Amino acid sequence: MNYDVIVIGSGPGGYVAAIRASQLGLKTAIIEKENLGGICLNWGCIPTKALLKSAQVFEYLNHSAEYGITADNIKADFGNVIKRSRDVADGMSKGVQFLMKKNKIDVIVGAAKVKPGKKVEVTDKDGKTSVVEGKHIIIAVGARSRQLPNLPQDGKKIIGYREALVLPKQPKSMVVVGSGAIGVEFAYFYATLGTKVTVVEFLPNIVPVEDEDISKQLEKSFKKIGIDVMTEANVESVDTKGDISKVKVKTKTGEVILEAEIVLSAVGIQANIEGLGLEETGIASDKGKILTNKYSETNIPGYYAIGDCTGGQALAHVASAEGILCVEKIAGHHPEPIDYNNVPGCTYCQPEIASVGYTEKKAKEAGYEIKVGKFPFTASGKAKAAGHSDGFVKVIFDAKYGEFLGAHMIGANVTEMIAEIVVARKLETTGMDIVKSIHPHPTMSEAIMEAAAAAYGEVIHL
């Protein structure tokens, strides 16, 4: 079986690359060993957002009196919350199946191994092997929960994100190790439903990739809903004997023992490149990631890699963009390489976090003289009316030319607002362009205009 393009893996990088290849007239096949849609759709982005929505609804109901509405005997049915999440993921996976048929993409089920000569060996569930050939082979195998020696996941008491999505019953207590997006999203979900949650972070701030002001605000908001936060703390070991696990944590002031039914390891991800045939094919990797150039080409002509198995940002929308760019280059187009400093990052706990570009610290380290503007949602009419006044918008501009260097938001629905900044930066919009662009009132989004005005000393509502 010969193809123009063979894609290994059907996550948001793989299936998007396959569709774009088909659109460009390339005969395409996609190889998947589990479910179409990959981790993001089945075990990541989509089902977690479904869980978080259930938690948000539960939170609303528990605070209904603040909106003048009486609601009694509010309970969360944990089993049905989990079921809804799985139903949403299953529905989305069926949608990808439809897209494969619509775009006449052959779906090959099995585990793939790349071979020299632009061949891929596929082993099905019965152990039978077959070989497919393609002019171009795109590796999009994604990543999985990272394992630490002092935090060995057993799937029952020490779990990763997959188990956290489908626990058979709600734990009374949980220690979340790591405070990146996965860690804080699950911390919010379980805490809102009534689990006693402690977040343990090795670095000085939670959500450590974010601007420090964002980290401080999230910690304050988490503590308000009863989540304990420990920073500059390291989990040394977990004793899983008995019903309650004992987590030994080293802090600045000494050792602490935390007790919890469940320990969630959220300390990052590792690429799924073992047994893929990289060595046999000669494809270079470093520190567990496949090495690629700006067009996702590996060191071996005809072989490409996109998404979480490479060294870029581990985000679904990055994988999708890399897939489209890679295929357009294959088709002979002249696509513009991705600007990885203009990729938005979003975290969907409550309050939400969204950011793009330089943090204040990184902008200064890069040598910029900066103007910084900040507008709190406590001064936003829409936020106050909605009952969600936690958080702020922070914008950073180059003082000399007005270049939009970065934006950092924390608050309700800010993940829906960040795209304005991404487009503005792409179009080289200046700070004063934002100030003079009329934003609708009352909206959360006008906080962007107000923050920009604050940077230039022209803010009205502060």
Topology of helices and strands:
Layout: E1 2-8, H1 14-23, E2 28-32, H2 38-43, H3 45-62, H4 78-102, E3 106-109, E4 111-115, E5 119-123, E6 129-139, E7 143-145, E8 158-159, H5 161-165, E9 173-177, H6 181-192, E10 196-200, H7 212-224, E11 228-230, E12 234-239, E13 245-251, E14 254-260, E15 262-265, E16 269-271, H8 278-281, E17 285-286, E18 289-290, E19 303-305, H9 316-330, E20 345-347, E21 352-357, H10 360-365, E22 370-376, H11 381-386, E23 392-398, E24 404-411, H12 418-426, H13 431-435, H14 446-455
Parallel strand pairs: 1-2, 1-6, 2-3, 6-19, 8-15, 9-10, 9-15, 10-11
Antiparallel strand pairs: 4-5, 5-6, 7-16, 12-13, 13-14, 17-18, 20-21, 21-24, 22-23, 23-24
Describe this structure in words.
There is one protein chain. Helix 1 runs parallel beside helix 9, helix 3 (45-62) runs antiparallel to helix 4 and helix 3 runs parallel beside helix 6 (181-192). The protein has helices at residues 14-23, 38-43, 45-62, 78-102, 161-165, 181-192, 212-224, 278-281, 316-330, 360-365, 381-386, 418-426, 431-435, 446-455; strands at residues 2-8, 28-32, 106-109, 111-115, 119-123, 129-139, 143-145, 158-159, 173-177, 196-200, 228-230, 234-239, 245-251, 254-260, 262-265, 269-271, 285-286, 289-290, 303-305, 345-347, 352-357, 370-376, 392-398, 404-411. With 462 residues, it is an alpha/beta fold. Strands 1, 2, 3, 4, 5, 6 and 19 form a 7-stranded mixed beta sheet that branches. Strands 8-15-9-10-11 form a 5-stranded parallel beta sheet. A 5-stranded antiparallel beta sheet has the order 20-21-24-23-22, with helices on both faces. It has 14 helices and 24 strands.
